[in-house]
Design a protein that fits this description.
By secondary structure, this protein is an alpha+beta fold. The chain folds into two domains: 89 residues, Glutaredoxin; 100 residues, Glutathione S-transferase Yfyf (Class Pi), Chain A, domain 2 (Up-down Bundle), CATH 1.20.1050.10. It is built from eight helices and five strands; from the N terminus they run H-E-H-E-E-E-E-H-H-H-H-H-H. It has a five-stranded mixed beta sheet, with helices on one face. The radius of gyration is 19 Å and the shape is globular. The protein starts with a helix and ends in a 5-residue tail after the last helix. The structure holds glutathione. Glutathione binds next to loops.
Length: 222
Amino acid sequence: MLVLTPIVRSLSTQNKALIMKLFYAPGACSLSPHIVLREAGVTFTLEKVDTVTGTTESGADYSRINAKGYVPALQIEDGAVLTEGAAVVQFIADQHPDAKLAPAAGSLERARLQEHLNFIASELHKAFTPLFKPDSTDEMKTAAKANVRRRLGQIEQQLADGRDYLMGEDFTVADAYLFTVANWAIPTGIGLGAWPRLKALVTRIAERPSVKAALAAEGLAA
Ligand SMILES: N[C@@H](CCC(=O)N[C@@H](CS)C(=O)NCC(=O)O)C(=O)O
């Protein structure tokens, strides 16, 4: 007993340090790593962030966790925080290769995955941004919607060969990100009706248990 006690203490401290925490805002781009954490079977906790006030639900100053002020941020262990959604989902996938959420690093397929992630992040995700800003003019919103439509149309073209997911037969982290961002077409009034393959893909992804669980945990309807 005298010998075991310190070992037990040290194990429990270690386990505590290894539980990841995702800082998120409901329905925001942080939903993508949230889905990926569940797909990978990771044990994690969630902490909601109010990005307007810059505080988390436990009252922490979020700028001390992610100086950039936005979500997502993944706290990996005490003191280590990873930001930028595309990097976060790849990190989770690489830590859990059995879940097969990303092709092997260094392969052409992995670069293809990054091609998708980068397109979603810089062209599609950011095309939506003026639609969520209270100070955007109607003119800015009209231009943003045209831009979003153009990008959704380009994804529709990529799905023209009948593939099940962005990368082919298998669900990857890029699908989690696409699902998250494409869904913003609904509240912004763009809808997905003009892109039937994309709409079918989003509907298919919505059926995944990880997605249902993530939406429920964020207080969102499927
Ligand atoms: N480059 C970042 C952008 C993240 C981002 O745009 N987050 C939005 C939600 S989708 C946010 O937190 N916006 C609030 C803010 O910028 O203050 C990434 O790809 O992770």
